[in-house]
């Protein structure tokens, strides 16, 4: 399992949620107050298995936090993922980077695990 978090230094909660929904294949979304969840699953050919992921977005008064959790993309006795989990994190990283650069917003990435 791989987890990363992006801290966006602007109040762009609804805009980043809309960008995620439009760019990431998903099975389910949920929003309640200051929290938004996007969940999905994809077949990964490189590992011959399904990989599940969720993206959680939450906000406070001046920032938005995007947490990406991706797992289950491993194969074999040691559950080697061959980079498939990292590949999904990279998709979200590119989306957040492009969004923030386009809007002139500062952000930082914190790799949790």
List keywords for this structure.
113 residues; 2 helices; alpha+beta; six-stranded antiparallel β-sheet; 6 strands; 27% helix; TATA-Binding Protein
Protein architecture, described:
With 113 residues, the chain is α+β, with helices and mostly antiparallel strands. The chain has a single domain, classed as 2-Layer Sandwich (TATA-Binding Protein). Helices cover 27% and strands 41% of the residues. The chain contains two helices and six strands. Strands 2-3-4-5-1-6 form a six-stranded antiparallel beta sheet, with helices on one face. A hairpin with a 4-residue loop joins strand 3 (35-44) and strand 4 (49-59). The mean pLDDT is 84.
Element layout with pairings:
Layout: E1 2-8, H1 13-23, E2 28-32, E3 35-44, E4 49-59, E5 64-71, H2 84-103, E6 107-111
Antiparallel strand pairs: 1-5, 1-6, 2-3, 3-4, 4-5
Strand order of the largest sheet: 2-3-4-5-1-6
Runs in which pLDDT lies below 50 for 5 or more consecutive residues are none
Number of helices: 2
What Rg is obtained from the alpha carbons, in whole angstroms? 14 Å
Give the terminus-to-terminus CA distance. 8 Å
How many E strands?
Answer: 6
Please state the average pLDDT score: 84
CATH topology: TATA-Binding Protein
The percentage of residues in β strands lies in 35-45%
Question: What is the overall shape?
Answer: globular
Largest sheet: 6 strands, antiparallel
- What class would the helix/strand composition place it in? alpha+beta
Estimate nothing, just give the exact number of structural domains. 1
Helical amount: 25-40%
Q: What's the CATH class label?
A: Alpha Beta
SSE string, helices as H and strands as E = EHEEEEHE
> Can you tell me the CATH architecture?
2-Layer Sandwich
